[in-house]
Amino acid sequence: MYKNPILRICTKILFAPIILFGLYVQFHGDFGPGGGFQAGVIVASAFILYSIVFGLKEGKKLLPEKINLFLLALGALIYAGVGITSIILGETFLSYNSLGTNAQSGQHIGILLVEFGVGLTVSNVMISLFNSFAGYELDKG
Amino acid sequence: MNWIKGNEMISSAMGIWNYWIVFILMMIGLFIVIGRKNFLKKIVGLAIFQTSVFLLYITFGKITGGTAPILTGSASSIYSNPLPHVLILTAIVVGVATTALGLALVVRINSTYGSIEEDDISAQDLVDYHDQNQIFEKINTKLNK
Amino acid sequence: MITELIINAFLVTLMMGIAISLLKTRSVIFTVILTSAYSLVAALMFITLDAVDVAFTEASVGAGISTILFLAAMAYLPKEEEKNLNSQFLPALSCIILGAILIWCSYDLPEIGLATAPIHLHIVPDYILGSKNDIGIPNVVTSILASYRGYDTFGETVVVFTAGIAVLALLKNTKTPKYQNKSKFKKKVGKNV
Amino acid sequence: MIDIIISHSPILIVICPLMMSLIVVLIPNNYLSWLITLVTTFITFLISILLYQEVQNHSLISYALGNWAPPLGIEYVIDHVSIIPLIIISGIGFLATVFAYKIMPSEIDKNSISKTYSLWLLAIAGLIGLVTTGDAFNLFVFLEISSLASVALVAMGAKKDRQALVAAYNYLIIGAVGATLYVIGVGLLYAITGTLNMADLTERLADIKNNRALTAGFGFMVVGIMVKAAIFPLHIWLPRAYAYAPSAVSILLAATATKASLYILARILFSIFLPSYDLINYTLTYIILPLSIVAMFAGTIMAIYEKDIKRLLAHSSVAQIGYITLAFSIGTKASIASGFIHMANHALIKGGLFMAITSMGYYLQKRITIHSLSGLGKTMPITFFCFVVCSLSLAGLPLTAGFISKLYLIKASISSEGLWLAFLILFSSALSLIYLWKMIEALWLNPSHNQAIKVKESPVIYTSLLLITFLNIYFGLDASLIVNSSYNASNLLLGISK
After folding, report:
1. Residue A118 falls within a domain, yes or no?
2. If you count Cβ atoms within 10 Å of the first and of the last residue's Cβ in chain B, which end, N or C, has fewer?
3. What's this model's pTM, rounded to 2 decimal places?
4. Do B104 and A32 touch (CB under 8 A)?
5. C104 close contact with D: CB closer than 8 A
6. Structural domains counted in chain C
7. Are B13 and B20 in contact (CB under 8 A)?
8. Domain encompassing residue C35
9. CA-based nearest residue to C32, from D157, B40, A133
10. pLDDT digits 0-9 by tens, D261-311
11. B2-114: what CATH class?
């Protein structure tokens, strides 16, 4: 845990803009380069920066492991859920035409939901990867 | 097939020297995976090998004078091929997943074997193997008495 | 056209330099830094080859996250790689043979940048048209990624999920027999053989 | 409701284990996570039987994902060929889950059992996705899912023996290099044809003659899949991976993992590259035939000298895979059918043998080697009986499933290659009798070390063991089910030419 105040203050200042930029990349994927994977990594880098500077315990307080594991599974479940709803609505797996009022808005909704699921899973996987590597020394049997 | 020949004879390697560079990078990565004995270096070699394969896919998709596959509304613009980009987006994240699992295994191996060199580890396994055999020899001799 | 050639040549020589120096180094820190440099230069190469989405992913996932993982793992690993004792002839030979096969086969591959290559003619026009009319998204890569080949991305998310769960299962509360054999195993057996 | 399941069954069979693996991770209670895994594998097995009926009526089910027509979107193809590995994987997956109830807690520490079951379901879903997909790149993605999950499962064996970590590491690196070689092959083929869909690839490959990139792409794809199918020179990772994995995992992997890759090899050789006929003929007769003959003998000889039982069975798996690739390399309709027959029978045999060894290991709480086996035959009669039946089936003696596959293999090899090959097959299966007798003799005749252990075989463990032994005998007596579906498969594969 770095005592150096400059680092701590900068992290606090930087934390929100990184998340904001991650969300921008997430929802800007339709018009420019971006999408679920890149957004998930950017959001994860904010949390990793926080747990580097403030220490793993603070990082675990910010995002507890239980919630991290739950969000990890939730992202992929959202993706599979979109697929299952398109089956229930009568089309084949992962077809978005019937999700919205007309085919094009259905595609928009489907792509946004799917990208959000990918972003959620990728960000939480990267955070849990960092926590397992960083915390390995602490609870080694 | 006329499309291979392009505008001038293919024997002049002008059009495909880029492939050769990518192939050389691939072989350096593969050599690190096969040649080096350090377990961490093998994972680095695998990452290099996979990144070079991604470069090969993207060089397939390039059209001279084409722009990024983002529709700009004007009908005349030529777009590079978007399909290899989609495949490589998937392959990059698969590569990182393999690297993460490999690193977790290397950390565990280091904490139980004390080293991540192939020679030290196989030497320790050999010593394990002989210890086990000695234990069974003792059991057999006790049994035959 | 010439500037693009110069940039391309510069980036390629940079990558070649990084790859060869990776062969040479034995210090682990330098290897990790070189790997992330390699990913970053690859991202630049992707930009010159008009693959902007891939460059973004390679920079953030390839150079970003894998470097963090390498650094986090490096904290537990020995800092110096062993001197390689045995001969490198067989691996070098197999790589040279494989490289020769690849270069031999590149003569029949379509020329780089040729607009009439088969991959640009078969399904890609339908993707570009479809992405404009059916899906209405300017970024064709995202429309293919999420809608046309959405199942690939689903498999992709499950691969990331598997890696996350596997690393959690491997590194969390692990109890393995630490040094199984209590024999007089010397640390550097390889050294004095 | 039922017709929704039927019409969407090609995708449901993959999605059901995938989604359940996402849910099982979140369940803290170990018993509940096993129960959900059991129910999921049972449902998957039911859907695979449903699919088997579907395939019998109309011989090819194509399921376009995302409602996009095949060359654009990804397509799932289920036909006579892919239904065989599909049923093997879901069937053995269900049996192994039933068996793993008591074995898993004794081998993996308490708080990572729900993660292990999640990886277990992911491995099964990855293998099923590998078999059903009709798209070359989607096959790579599911190949990665199943191999990452199997590597993690093998590494979980580190609680018992630290060598599991090195075995898992080798499995990961060799598997990753193999998968990357496969991706290079797909890339080269994509560059010269422009498509990724397998059916579309066949059409477009037909009119490309003696193109160097085609030969190189074919070579890379086949070598990549040979690494995954552990065919002879590239099988180095298999014995240690199966020996040091947790016992329940080695049952699942030994019976299913290589079968999916062997199916992909058959799909590449006989359906994607069928038009380039001379290339296939050359590879089959000059590369795969000699390799599988060497595999038969090398695997058996290594098994004879092996002391650790699980590694012995892994070496014998390498030999049995040699039989399957030998059947493919002869290349006639009868021989490819015998390849599929042996694929099914070998899954039953190897599953049964590993289950018997695991139940012995569970009672002894020790690593099973030739020495620790002595005298167990008398104390555990049921397991010993099942072990004997499965080893007879492995050796290929009459009235067992193994005999059927050896019979059809020898018939096929006589009709096309002549007597020398049939003699080699008989000689190598005679050799395999040596290590089987070595084990049975240790079990029955040797005096047991400590008469003290009074072993009460719990029914939970030996029910699935008895079931798999019964299947071995049943398919030995009435093998019409396996033989007919294998002949349907080889007719479909080679329907055009021979």
Report:
1. yes
2. C
3. 0.93
4. no
5. yes
6. 2
7. yes
8. 1-80
9. B40
10. 999 999 998 888 888 888 888 888 899 999 999 999 999 999 998 888 999
11. mainly alpha
